[in-house]
């Protein structure tokens, strides 16, 4: 198949050829019938978009398509989420209920009925891609979704996988399933991978302002993908294959995890030398080129950073390659909660107290500041370690009035309000997650001891220990 390049009036498409600054679209020279009718529907916004998996990724994307004038149907297997959405309610802190209610008023509905897939012109898959108990990729959510949609596929649809995954998932797992139904990819069904780059809680970027990578199985698939996403995203970056798109997302997250591992190691070195690592990072960040600041913490959390790199590790083994940087960063980051607890034990000891029976208040259980997401949070690991050492542990987090029951952690506690009296009651306040909602001046004034894992306090004080 040949790819022709012709001028387009859509200035939001980035050229693949980085040597020219012309904004051109890449168009398939002999566009087949289904491609033409699909892209026409996309351009005149009569295409019905089906978003599958209405979580942190799928929900903002849904709202963006609706805002840009598309009709969207949401598909999910979680009935409780479907009910909330159809009632105009939100289950994600940073997505206001009014936005859902407005979407519903514009015709948005959510359902568990996958037969609705047949009405959709675009099917966008945003389901989880976790690790299984052997820390290997668990693609079952993706393949289950594809299997649930298969009976309802019809020519003229685009299927886009957004879930983060290893290179080869789209062409090895999704393509054969679709072809088994007798469809030709690139002629009947258009298949792309367009990894999500959502950063929940980051006020500086929204779905539309984060450039979107897109790779297709064939040039016609890519054309359909670029046509779809350029309707809702300011800048679409085409790449040459679904595998390149899959690896792009993994590279981004591996870059983060390795650099966080590096600063966590630097933190331990600086601590031994009695140097404040946060001061050093802030100073280094004044260099206008060649340095990107990453900040240490009590470990890594969230759905992506602790998980995604191991998708590549697993796949690389098939090629006889060990991903040493990923393994090393994983080891350093995984050891962080133990290191923080050792610092806490030492700090209590220096004050004549034992960790056994010490009253410890852990601040922030979410995996990062200002979000209501607790997945893989190192704060939960810290709570477990403290309980294991027989400390008397409580926590405070405005996003979690009660600790949710999790697969790995079952701790029953309710959030302690931050008041001067409450803070003073504890032998130690351990800052795991630095939500903006905490009153840090009040905490500093009243705490007997603060163990600060996030560099909240830049000054030295007798009751503050950095960890
Ligand atoms: N959360 C982030 O910040 C983020 C950022 C970039 C990429 N990602 C990636 O996006 C994907 C989705 O992540 P998320 O954070 O939105 O997950 P999530 O858990 O918030 O949402 C996933 C949704 O999919 C639904 N679901 C599960 N199985 C399903 C099925 N078979 N059919 C239909 N729905 C199903 C769940 O009920 C849930 O509502 C993952 O691959 C993740 O790595 C997430």
Beta-strand content estimate: 5-15%
Number of helices: 14
Compute the separation of the termini in Å: 57 Å
Which ligands occur here?
Answer: nicotinamide-adenine-dinucleotide
Number of strands: 15
Largest sheet: 8 strands, mixed
Question: Would you mind describing this structure in some detail?
Answer:
With 467 residues, the protein is an alpha/beta fold. Helices cover 37% and strands 14% of the residues. The protein is built from 14 helices and 15 strands. It has helices at 33-43, 58-67, 79-86, 97-105, 140-149, 169-180, 219-229, 242-272, 277-284, 308-318, 324-350, 378-388, 420-425, 440-446; strands spanning 3-6, 25-28, 48-52, 71-75, 109-111, 122-125, 157-161, 189-193, 212-216, 236-239, 359-363, 392-396, 428-431, 450-452, 464-466. The strands form three sheets. The protein has an eight-stranded mixed sheet with strand order 5-4-3-6-7-8-9-10, with helices on both faces. A five-stranded parallel sheet has the order 12-11-13-14-15, with helices on one face. Helix 7 (219-229) links the parallel strand 9 (212-216) and strand 10 (236-239). Helix 1 (33-43) packs parallel to helix 7 (219-229). The longest helix is centred in the middle third of the chain and has 31 residues, at 242-272. The protein is elongated. The protein starts with a strand and ends with a strand. 44% of the residues are buried. The model is unreliable at 1-30 (pLDDT under 50). It binds nicotinamide-adenine-dinucleotide.
